[in-house]
Each structure stands twice: as C-alpha cells, then as structure tokens.
Amino acid sequence: MGKAVQLVNNFYYVTLWLCQDCMLHHANGECSGCHDGHDETPLNKTDHTSLTMGIPRDGHECGRQDGEDVDECDCETNTFSTSQCDGCGSYLHGERHGFTEFVKA
Ligand SMILES: [Zn+2]
Ligand SMILES: [Zn+2]
Ligand SMILES: [Zn+2]
Questions:
Q1: Domain that holds residue 49
Q2: Which of 1, 9, 22, 92 is in Cβ range 3.0-4.6 Å of 87 for a Cys bridge?
Q3: What total number of domains does the chain contain?
C-alpha cells in the first residue's frame, strides 16, 4: 500500500487510505457515527473538498476490465489495517477506505 501518484491532464491523482472516522466525516460532512471520539481530527491532513471515494482503476488488483461492475470487487476497502490513516494521521487499527485526491499540478 502507499501513495500512488499519477499526473493526468495537469492533475495529480493521489491515492489515500482513510480510516472509518475520516470516511464518515467525508460522507456526512460532520461528526456522526464515529467511534468514541477520535485520537486525531478527521481529515486534518487533507483537503477533503478535492477527495473522491474510490481509487483509480490501475489501483485495482482484481484485474477488472473496463465495463465490469465496479461494485463486485473490494480493492477499495482494506478490512483491517494497522498503517497510518492518510486523512488524519491516526494509527488506530481498523478499516481503511480508498480515496482519490485531485491536486492541480
Ligand atoms: Zn467524528
Ligand atoms: Zn477491484
Ligand atoms: Zn483518519
């Protein structure tokens, strides 16, 4: 795992792996349904306005071809990770969800 950076059409596509709390904050825009508080402020390390849930196709290890149903694979979720959350810096164990951040070159 780790950040894959790609330059396409003057944008950098950066793959980020976010913890459950960051994912919920991104989805809801506020604190709801999080675990007992956070040890770090969710999304503090990233600009969440340029984040999109999901990862680029070449980040998929399932061999999915164009046109196949995206929902069929689970490359975008790591059900148990001990690596640092790219969104808040937390080292809490748990799920990591793949996101793509678009940064203008
Ligand atoms: Zn929260
Ligand atoms: Zn996949
Ligand atoms: Zn996080």
A1: 5-104
A2: 22
A3: 1
